[in-house]
Amino acid sequence: METDEMEENVMYLFRNFNRLSRQLKEKNWDIIDTTRVKVDAFRRTLPLIGDLKNPCMRERHWDRIKELMNVEFDQNSEDFKLDLIMRLNFQAYADEIAEISNAATMELNIENGLKAIREVWKATTYEMTPHKGDIYKIKSVDEVMQFLEDHQVQLSSMKSTKYVEPFIKEVDYWEKSLGYVAECIEISLQVQRRYLYLETIFTGEDIRKQLPKEVVIFDNLTSAWTEVTSNMFAGKNAIEACIYKPLPYLFNKLNQMVDNLDGILRALEKYLETKRQLFPRFYFISNDDLLEILGNSKKPAMIQVHLKKLFDNVNRIRIEKT
């Protein structure tokens, strides 16, 4: 149906009959007024034709119309033409059909939005690079975090409309999945920061001797972190990296790793505090500097760079063997 052309012709006829009705008012020709009323009635049904022609309409929308009108018809049949539409009295349900047609348009926007989200997350992942052995390091998550933020807002907007019902399961799936990915990325970065900091410390023999219990915990953490990062690296995208490929309950595992790393850091801080109590000038320097001094306790030349932080007006000292 060429609705644009129909609308143009009907408006042309309606204007002409209005003009004739005014010009021939004194003659009282009923045919003029009767025809004008019929043309006007048809003109008012044209929006209904547009609603029925809406390409966004799906089978579920036609089922709602059939249920509303309590009639059966085949909208894909060649017989589904204007004559049948008028005979089945579609115009009596024009307002309800307009609402169904509008819902179809709004639902298609959600459908297309979900399709776009699916396509994005087929390929989107965060950049990881080899670190040591089988351990991988998360290098960049900027693109992933931007998509996460945009899509979470988009999904929230979808859920706030009444048109989301046909897609509520998929919207819930993506909302939960992306929320889980965001949590896993955030806590993975926390683990990585703590692990990389402690990794350099626990390579020193002095610390390994002084904190044997923490060494065992850290070595076990190293094995677990190796497994986690290897599985994340194997994922084709961020969803697989956080949900499908890694060990079950990845977030819980990472959360436990953070707790263990924090425990090691507290033990390390306590150990360094004992050294500061023995030599209060160690309070003037950072933990990293103190660890470097302790790690090179048998190499006096290596601690020269820290002397100016410990003592006023002292830059270097001369060390002589006796």
UniProtKB/TrEMBL annotation:
Belongs to the dynein heavy chain family. The lineage of its organism: Eukaryota, Metazoa, Ecdysozoa, Arthropoda, Hexapoda. Its main location: cytoplasm. It holds the Pfam family DHC_N2. The keyword Acetylation does not apply. GO terms for molecular function: ATP binding; dynein intermediate chain binding; dynein light intermediate chain binding. GO terms for cellular component: axoneme; dynein complex; microtubule. Keywords: ATP-binding, Cell projection, Cilium, Coiled coil, Cytoplasm, Cytoskeleton, Dynein, Microtubule, Motor protein, Nucleotide-binding. InterPro entries: DHC (IPR026983), Dynein_2_N (IPR042222), Dynein_heavy_linker (IPR013602), Dynein_linker_3 (IPR042228). It is found in: Cytoplasm, Cytoskeleton, Cilium axoneme. It comes from Mythimna separata (Oriental armyworm). It comes from the Eukaryota. One of its GO terms (biological process) is microtubule-based movement. Residues 2-320 form the Dynein heavy chain linker domain. This is Dynein heavy chain linker domain-containing protein.
